[in-house]
Amino acid sequence: MLALTVVHARAWLHAQSMAQQMRLVDAKSLQGPDKVASAINQRLQLTEAYCWDHSSPRPRAPGIALDSPAANDGTPFSNSIDPSLDHIEQLRQACQHRCPEIRGVMIPRLHGLMLYWLVTLLKPRRVLEVESFVGYSLMWLTEAIHHTLRQSQQVQPNQPCQLPAEPPVVGCELVPEYVALIRHHLQTHQLDKLARIVQGRALDTLKHKLNTAQPFDLVFIDTNKAQYIDYYDTALDQGLLAPGGLIIVDNTLMHSRVHSQYPPVQQVLAEINRDGPNSSDYVEPTYCLTEDQAQQAAQQVYQFNQHVANDSRTEQLLMPIFDGFTLIRRKLTRA
Predict the structure, then answer these.
(1) Which candidate, 98, 89, 167, places its Cα nearest to that of 135?
(2) pLDDT tens digit sequence for 51-87
(3) Are 331 and 243 in contact (CB under 8 A)?
């Protein structure tokens, strides 16, 4: 996700560009590198569609990654469907209907399901999301915590579980309209005892509005790339992340533009480009960003990745999945 104070402006300004990149134009009109990029993007979407159909538990979501009834006119593998998660997909569809341009801003469905899996596997007691946008990823995190509580209490289907005194999931959000939307959705689906949203600037919330006596076991960061380092350092310096706790950071490859700034990679690319097409012609589309904005964000993410790699307090795994997905674990003892 992008910095939410500029989401709407960027979304509307780049709607036409995004429409092309999301396959809403005639692919035959594309030439050269644009045609290659379009073909790659189509293959990625088809791959995501296949993976979604073969994953569980998932809400009912006909059309999946392609948002096209022709792509999936039924609900395959219905035993993988969990109706209790349908509200997450309904939130996604409602937000996209109101503002189609945010499609490229929200995390993909598979990404949300991966967050769900990580939470149910790791079983964190408390979860923090830094900037929640419209609440889509927050709902995945909340339902994962709900599932974990029910499992630990061995609750039978259709029976309520015992809830903690305070909501174990906390989200941060600045935009009042998004805060109201999230709170309404949580209340409507009886999840407000599991998650709460704190309104205000995320950095102020991290520094002044959270109880450090109850640190978080998992923190998800997917927001303004210029503040990645600030959010990361604050979570550690303020004691918000428990020893052994996990920070998950999204967009750490930034549309294939981050690793190309790494000197060893630059050297290899220079050798490749002597005898073939320029590799920079084949970077991934950026949807809601101009190329200049994407390069600036990539530089900020590159600095963040360097910062984390040099930090003795943590250990990390940067994976080339989605748009770059980093797991950062706080060491039990400082090196």
Answers:
(1) 89
(2) 988 899 999 875 454 444 444 445 567 788 999 999 9
(3) yes
Phi, psi (rounded to 5 degrees) for 127: -130, 135
Q: How far apart are CA 17 and CA 240, in angstroms?
A: 39
pLDDT value for 20? 35
Lowest mean pLDDT among 56-65, 144-153, 325-334: 56-65
In 123-172, where does DSSP find H-type helix?
Answer: 136-153
Whole-structure pTM value? 0.84
Cβ 272 vs Cβ 279: under 8 Å: yes
CB 297 within 8 A of CB 254: yes
Domain spans, the chain: 7-25+97-330
How many CB atoms neighbour CB 186 within 10 A?
23
- Over residues 318-332, the mean pLDDT reads 95
Q: Please enumerate in sequence order all residues whose Cβ is within 8 A of that of 63, keeping only pairs 6 or more positions apart, or say none.
A: 69, 71, 72
Which pLDDT score is estimated for 39? Answer: 72
Element (H, E) at 300: helix 291-309
Helix (H, G, I), strand (E, B) or coil at 130: strand
Residues 127/217, Cβ–Cβ less than 8 Å: yes
pLDDT tier, 230 (very low <50, low <70, confident <90, very high otherwise) = very high
Show the CA angle centred on residue 137, arms to residues 131 and 141, nearest 5°.
105
Residue for token digits 């974990």?
148
What residues contact 85, with CB distance under 8 A and at least 6 apart? Answer: 57, 58, 59, 143
Give the CA-trace dihedral at 166, 230, 285, 116, to 10 degrees: -20
The neighbouring-strand residues paired with 250 are 325
CATH architecture for segment(s) 7-25+97-330: 3-Layer(aba) Sandwich (3.40)
User: Could you give the CA distance from residue 131 to residue 221 in angstroms, rounded to a whole number?
Assistant: 7
Please give the Cα distance from 284 to 281 (Å, whole number).
9
Residue among 227, 230, 234 nearest 207 (CA): 234
**Digit-coded pLDDT (tens) for 291-302:** 888 899 999 999
**Cβ proximity of 330 and 244 under 8 Å:** yes
